[in-house]
Design a protein that fits this description.
Length: 668
């Protein structure tokens, strides 16, 4: 990076030698003394000339004073600009070199001061060339500040190399040259203005001498008065020179103070450089710690650049991929490693170049990629996670999941075996249910024939026994049907026979089946069905079976009170609920009652009968319609079982609808 000089370009002293040269080259005009004997002659005649000459000299004096004051102010502002520019440049360079945010904060503190100094110089400048030079410097400074702020953003992102590249680039150097050119033009303008001021003073002096000579040619007496005025003028000029000398002394004092500040700042920089070296040492220690962490992590890791060259890797990376020694190295190409793996057969059959390009495409995606890879020969399975870096490179993390894959395969095999066992069980239950239903239907048929006196008059003693046989036979047939339905559901063989139906008709059928049961227990059986329910489409037999099961359970577990059945429309689905005033169900039991063979009272001495399949089958059938079955209950207050059914249901299992042979509702 080019060394920063005082005016962003060619080196120059803080105050400049031009001012000293201009002062040393200044010489007073030589005026011959006038004869004193002529004093007093023609005083009245020369009063008017004296007044005019006095005004002329006084005006020249004021112009010279203004010029001197402005020049001194510009030189002071120029010194401030040079000093602030050095501070800003040094802060930017140190921020890019060290990456410390403190330098940026220091820069932010001084940058507004530089802008203020430049604006002040523009306000003071009168000459167009000086004003243009300051504006040129201001424009260059704005661009430099923009580039330095850009470098600061890179510093905050820890991109120090890119930040230093901006501060050492051609564009930055060009702007510095423009800045230096502006400051050089400002210096030349100041010299020109000082020379113009001196020339004005000389012109004023010469004009005064010519005016006095002209007046002396007309009225020689006037020279007496003019001589006194000239002496006064010379005294004023002498005073001006004294003022300039004092100003120069003040400037030298300021220069010495600035030099002292620079020396103090140099010492501070030396201290900061020492701190930076210490920080670099700490950074080296942290890098060593990082290397220890990388070498001892359970997986392999590698960092590559945008050209697919290795930048960083740990020993586990080579071990997991089973690379030979020396294949993976810093600066080496990943293509060499991929070539080795392709030849080994890690990527499967095919052209090696095509396989390598397919893998490299993952590195070029610019997004995270995760995949599994098996090492040919050893059979080791690796989980590989690939992620991009901001500079176009990549990070790869590899983990050995061989044991995990083996456990996964064992679990999959166990799952398949369990499913096969479940299918065998379901098939066995289905076969057994069919074998049991056939003789049971025969027994019930003959029982009904005997009860109807087809084979002769039945004695009264036998009629009670026949009724019990029929009742228990139908109960047993219901259990067999439940087992058969469950086996069909688990085997995926139970299909829905879809047809149009009336929910009101379904409720009426259910009431005709269960109202005698409610009457036996003296329970109130109430019904509330929305009269505007639309015609539905579904398996009417299975829906009736579900509702009979829910209402039958409510009557069975309710000893007093009522059982209420409600049906309404909720959006595009039927909402049916069965509410009872029974003992209620605990929260723990609510979580399991829809499972197979689960009952609220599962003991051998339970008061109510049943297999525990009714709710499980009902829930499956409702879900096959695309609906939902649930329970809401409070102990001691009763329960409400509700289900929803799409008005136009579609079968959720199988590709076609089939007809299912209905059983007598009494056996459901």
């Amino acid at each position: 990076m080019p060394e920063r000089v005082h005016h962003r370009g060619v080196g120059a002293p803080l105050l400049g030698n031009g001012r000293e040269a201009a002062i040393s080259s200044y010489s007073h005009p030589q005026v011959e003394p006038f004869p004193t004997k002529l004093i007093g002659i023609a005083a009245l005649t020369t009063l008017a000339v004296l007044a005019w000459l006095s005004w002329f000299v006084y005006d020249a004096y004021q112009i010279a004073q203004d010029a001197n004051t402005r020049i001194v102010g510009l030189e002071r502002v120029r010194g401030d600009i040079i000093h602030l520019d050095e501070v800003l440049t040094m802060s930017a360079s140190m921020a890019a070199a060290t990456g410390e945010v403190a330098w940026i904060d220091r820069y932010r503190g001084f940058e507004p001061k530089l802008d203020t100094a430049i604006k002040k110089a523009i306000d003071i400048a009168r000459r167009p060339d000086i004003a243009d030079a300051i504006r040129e410097t201001d424009a260059a400074n704005i661009e430099l500040v923009r580039m330095e702020n850009q470098a600061f953003e890179l510093v905050r992102e820890r991109k120090l190399e890119e930040a230093r590249a901006i501060l050492s680039g051609k564009r930055y150097s060009d702007q510095k040259q423009v800045y230096a050119s502006g400051m050089e033009k400002l210096l030349r303008g100041l010299r020109a203005e000082r020379e113009a001021a001196v020339g004005l003073q000389r012109t004023s002096t010469l004009g005064s001498i010519l005016a006095m000579a002209a007046v002396a040619a007309v009225i020689i007496v006037v020279w007496l008065l003019i001589l006194g005025r000239v002496r006064e003028w010379r005294a004023v000029m002498s005073q001006n020179v004294s003022d300039l000398v004092r100003a120069e002394e003040a400037l030298r004092t300021s220069h010495d103070e600035l030099e002292q500040r620079v020396a103090d700042r140099t010492r501070e920089l030396q201290d900061e450089i020492g701190e930076r070296k210490q920080a670099e040492q700490e950074l080296a220690e942290k890098e060593a710690q990082l290397r220890v962490a990388l070498d001892n992590m359970p997986g392999g890791i590698t960092l590559g650049d945008r050209d697919l060259n290795y930048v960083l890797f740990n020993a586990q990376y080579s071990e997991l991929f089973e690379y030979p020694d020396g294949l993976v190295k810093v600066g080496g190409s990943i293509r060499d490693a991929l070539r080795y793996r392709a030849d080994r057969g890690d990527f499967g059959p095919g052209d090696s170049d095509d396989l390598i390009e397919q893998v490299i495409a993952n590195y070029r995606k610019g997004e995270a990629v995760s995949y599994q890879r098996t090492i040919a020969g050893s059979g080791r399975t690796l989980q590989v996670n690939l992620g991009p870096t901001p500079d176009g490179g990549y990070v790869t993390i590899a983990t050995d999941i061989t044991e995990l894959k083996r456990a996964e395969e064992k679990l999959l095999l166990a799952k398949e075996q369990a499913e096969a066992g479940s299918r065998a069980k379901s098939q066995f239950l289905a076969n057994m249910s069919h074998e049991l239903r056939t003789p049971m239907h025969a027994i019930l048929g003959y029982t009904e024939l005997i009860a109807d006196n087809i084979y002769g008059e039945v004695p009264d003693k036998m009629r009670g026994i026949i009724d019990r046989v029929e009742h228990n036979g139908r109960h047993l047939l219901g259990l067999i049907n439940d087992v058969l339905d469950l086996s069909r559901i688990e085997a995926g063989a139970l299909m829905l026979s879809l047809s149009d139906y009336s929910m009101t008709g379904v409720v009426d059928i259910v009431l005709s089946v269960v109202e005698s049961l409610a009457a036996e227990k003296k329970l109130a059986l109430t019904v509330a069905v929305d009269p505007d329910l639309p015609i539905g489409r579904g398996d009417e037999q299975r829906i009736t079976q579900v509702l009979v099961n829910l209402v039958g359970n409510a009557i069975k577990f309710t000893e007093a009170g009522e059982v209420a059945v409600r049906a309404s429309l909720a959006d595009t689905a039927f909402l049916v609920s069965v509410t009872d005033t029974g003992p209620g169900i605990s929260e723990a039991d609510q979580e399991v009652i829809f499972e197979e063979f689960r009952q609220v009272d599962g003991s051998d001495t339970r008061a109510k009968g049943g297999t525990g399949l009714g709710l499980a089958i009902s829930k499956r059938m409702i879900e096959m319609h695309g609906g939902r079955l649930w329970v809401e209950s409070t102990l001691g207050e009763g329960s409400t079982f509700s289900f929803t059914l799409p008005v136009r249901a579609e079968p959720q299992r199988g590709a076609r609808a089939i007809s299912v042979i209905p059983d007598s509702p009494k056996t459901l």
